[in-house]
Design goal:
- By secondary structure, this protein is an alpha/beta fold.
- It folds into two domains: 5-152, GTP1/OBG domain (Spo0b-associated Gtp-binding Protein, Chain: A); 158-323, Rossmann fold, CATH 3.40.50.300.
- 19% of the residues lie in helices and 23% in strands.
- It contains five helices and 14 strands.
- It has helices spanning 168-175, 243-257, 259-262, 278-289, 303-323; strands spanning 5-11, 42-47, 61-63, 83-88, 91-95, 101-104, 111-114, 145-152, 158-162, 193-197, 200-204, 231-237, 265-271, 295-297.
- The protein has a six-stranded mixed β-sheet, sandwiched between helices.
- It is rod-shaped, with a radius of gyration of 29 Å.
- Bound molecules: guanosine-5'-triphosphate and magnesium ion (MG).
- The site of magnesium ion (MG) has 5 residues, from helix 1.
Length: 324
């Protein structure tokens, strides 16, 4: 099971206490209490392991080390070690304590989320001409403690959407090196599959049915994984007796989840074209063109039509390369 939504607690380390010490050497009389070390901070870093949120399933509290207390001979306490937690690329971290959010969208660049407390000053820092034997010191400041919600929104360029059985996973497998499960029944796909076509990442998600936004079928929670895609491939089976109804059903569920999903660039793909004769296909394509002029029929068993789909992807890929 892909873990994509989890809440944890993080505790940055407290700063160490400042020391009160005096030099025992009679020739160099005076305060020599060092300051406390800094508490360790908590960082998050992007990982290419999409399943890595599993690390947070059972253990829920993650703490960095406290800073050490100050010592004599003006030696400061040691700094607490920082703690760096890995999350999949595409994770949004929501700080439930203060409302801040962070998007982890690059690999290997640590993002500071909870800061360790600074150490308190030792008596050495309180010396002055009028106070040559100070007894003052400070406690370290506490580290930041937060409750964090980690939710994964996959980073893909193209999302495959459609009713169950429309052929989404079959298309993903055909276009990419993915070998995800295909089945002649509804809801074969239970969690998102990813594949790459050149520089493009394709996300295949479970099928949507009417009422999914109200919890029917597998619901719409997994739609979070296509929120970041720029483009949708909307698959409609040529075997359907009413492709327009199928189209509208899926669009309604996308819109009910988030309006942004219906505003994405959409390519309508009439799948399983091998199952119908030319005139039936033409009729279905024409009816869909009234809703979106960008309609292409294909079958995974028809190499020529698959070439046209690959060409489409190559164009999208070229655009992506131009954009970066
Ligand atoms: N004839 C024909 N069958 C196809 C084609 N593409 C997929 N299928 C079949 O259609 C069925 C459903 O395919 P899937 O790829 O699992 O469909 P899906 O849209 O991923 O389905 P869910 O994961 O349940 O939403 C399988 O039995 C496939 O073998 C095609 O181009 N032609
Ligand atoms: Mg599937």
């Amino acid at each position: 099971m892909l873990i994509d939504d989890i809440t944890i607690a993080v505790r940055a380390g407290d700063g160490g206490k400042g020391a009160v010490r005096f030099n025992k050497n009679l020739h160099q009389y005076g305060p020599v209490g060092g300051s406390g070390g800094k508490g360790g901070s908590i960082y998050f870093i992007g990982s290419s392991d999409l399943g890595i949120l599993r690390n947070y399933r059972y253990k829920k509290v993650f703490a960095a080390d406290n800073g050490g207390d100050g010592r004599g001979q003006s030696r400061d306490g040691t700094d607490g070690k920082d703690l760096t937690l890995s999350v999949p690329m595409g994770t949004t971290i929501e700080n439930l304590t203060n409302g801040a959010t962070y998007d982890i969208i690059t690999l290997g660049k640590p993002v500071l989320v909870a800061r360790g407390g600074i150490g308190g000053r030792g008596n050495f820092h309180f010396r002055s001409s009028t106070n040559t034997r100070p007894k003052q010191f400070e406690y370290g400041k506490p580290g930041q403690h937060y409750s964090l919600r980690l939710s994964l929104k996959l980073i893909a360029d193209i999302g495959l959407v459609g009713l169950p059985n429309a052929g989404k996973t079959s298309l993903l497998n055909e276009l990419t090196r993915a070998r995800a499960k295909v089945g002649n029944y509804e809801f074969t796909t239970l969690e998102p599959n990813l594949g790459t076509f050149g520089e493009l990442v394709l996300a295949d998600i479970p099928g949507l049915i009417e009422g999914a936004s109200r919890g029917k079928g597998l619901g719409t929670k997994f739609l979070q994984h296509i929120e970041r895609t720029r483009t949708l491939f909307h698959l409609i089976s040529a075997e359907s007796d009413d492709p327009v109804r199928d189209y509208r059903t899926v669009r309604a569920e996308l819109g009910a989840y988030a309006r942004g999903l219906t505003e994405k660039e959409e390519h309508v793909l009439l799948s399983k074209s091998d199952t119908k004769d030319a005139s039936d296909l033409e009729k279905k394509i024409a009816s869909l063109r009234n809703l979106n002029p960008n309609v292409t029929a294909f079958s995974i068993h028809d190499p020529e039509r698959m070439r046209a789909i690959r060409q489409k992807l190559a164009t999208i890929e070229a655009r992506k390369r131009g954009a970066v």
